[in-house]
Amino acid sequence: MPPYRLETLLEMRARAKEEAEQAFSAAIKALEKEKAELKRLEDELTRRKAERKAKVMAYLNEVMAKGAGINGMNMMGRFEQRLKDEEAQVALDIERQREVVKVAERTVEQKRQQMAEAAKELKAIEKHKETWQKQIKYERQQREELNQEEIGSALFLARQRK
Fold first, then answer.
1. Pick from 159, 145, 133, 101: which is nearest to 10 by CA?
2. Among residues 103, 81, 91, which one has the least CA distance to residue 33?
3. pLDDT of residue 69
C-alpha cells in the first residue's frame, strides 16, 4: 500500500489533541487549587468572626470584673473595631479569590472547547485516511480482477486456437 500523503498532518493533529488534553488537565488542577484557596479563606473568615465574639466577651467580662469605667469600654470598642477591620480585609480577599475562581472556570471552559476542537480535527483526518485506504484497496481489487479476467481471456483464446 502506498504511504498516506497526509501522515504528517495526522501526526500533528494527534499531538495537538494530546497537548489540548494536557492543557485541559492543568486548567482543571488550577481551578481545584483556586477553589481550595477560596474555601480556606471562607473558613478563616468564619473562624475570625467566632474568635472576635469570644475575645470581645472575654474582654467585656474582664472589664466588668475590674469595674473599669468609660476608658475600658472605649478600649474594648477599639479592640473590637480592629478585629472587624481584619475580618473586612479577609472578606475582600474572598471577593478577589472568587474572581480568580471565575477566571479559572472560564479558562477551563476555553481549554475544554480547544480539546473538543482538536479531537474533532483529528477524527476528520482519521476518517479521511480510512476512506483513502478503502479507495486504495478497492482500486487494487479492481486491477486484480481485471488481470484475472485478462488471464482467463488469454487462456480461453489459447484453447480456442488449438
1. 133
2. 103
3. 67
CA distance 51 to 76: 15
- Residue 24's CB is within 10 A of a number of other CB atoms, namely 21
Which three cell numbers, joined as nine digits, stand for 138? 478497492
- pLDDT given at position 68: 62
What is the maximum alpha-carbon separation in the chain? 139
- Is residue 56 over pLDDT 90? no
AA identity, residue 94: I
State the Cα–Cα distance between residues 39 and 125, nearest whole angstrom. Answer: 44
Name the CA dihedral angle for 148, 151, 152, 156, rounded to a multiple of 10 degrees: 170
- DSSP string for residues in 110-152: HHHHHHHHHHHHHHHHHHHHHHHHHHHHHHHHHHHHHHHHHHH
The Cα 31–Cα 43 span in angstroms is 18
Question: Nearest 5°: CA angle at 78, between 77 and 80?
Answer: 65
Written as nine digits, the cell of 26 is 492543568
How do the domains of the chain map onto residue ranges? 7-120
As given in the structure block, the three cell numbers for residue 86 are 481584619
d(CA 25, CA 111): 9
Q: Which three cell numbers stand for residue 158?
A: 489459447
